[in-house]
Every structure is written in C-alpha cells, then in structure tokens.
C-alpha cells in the first residue's frame, strides 16, 4: 500500500486539501498518514518579566490539536481510505521529511494558495521548502 503523507495545519484550506488527498488516495489505493506539526514554543509568552513558559497552555493546545487530528482521521476513514495520524513539535519541514522517510512514503501532499513570490519572501512557504528538499515526490493541490 502506498503511504501518502498529508501535513495539515487546521487552516481554512484544510478541508479542501483533505478532499484532494482523498481523491488521490482512492486513485492510487493509498493510505493517508496525517501529520500536524505544532510549534516548539507553543506554551511560551513574552511579558513584563521576559519569556515565560506556561505548560498548561501547551497541554491544552496539544489536546485540542489531537482531537482535531482524530476527527480528520475519522472523516477520511468514513470515505473508505485507510488513515493514521501523528502530532509532533518542531520545525515543520524537518519533521515532515523525517516522518515521510520513516513511513517509506510514496508522496507528500501539500496545498498551495498560489500567492506571489513576494509573499514567500516575507512569510515563507512550507510547500515551496518541501518541493525543494524532498527526495520523494510532492503533489501540490491548488487551494483557492
């Protein structure tokens, strides 16, 4: 079975991205491996006393994201496609490529908003980063 890595960030585009990945998985008899990469600094805040760490904020955020991952996994399974999920913290591009390697993935499915190069200069683009660095094919789904 073909393992398809599907990084999701729970943005407005997530549903459309999942829809495209489902179609691709059905056409290739693939299994979707959902991954969400949370920032490593999720529980940190800057206040009057400098950086402070709030573990309860991090724990609550991680719990919420795991619930959302589980819900997305169940929706995919309801469409007849095998699925599993994982949540990790760190640098998204590194974590996704490492996960794709451990899953012996055939593809990584990403979305593209079709924004200009100027947007990439100031904000960066995970899709662009992965298409440059990935040793496996990256399928880019337009999200408009």
From TrEMBL:
Pfam families: Usp. Coiled coil: none annotated. Residues 3-142 form the UspA domain. Belongs to the universal stress protein A family. This is UspA domain-containing protein. It comes from bioreactor metagenome.
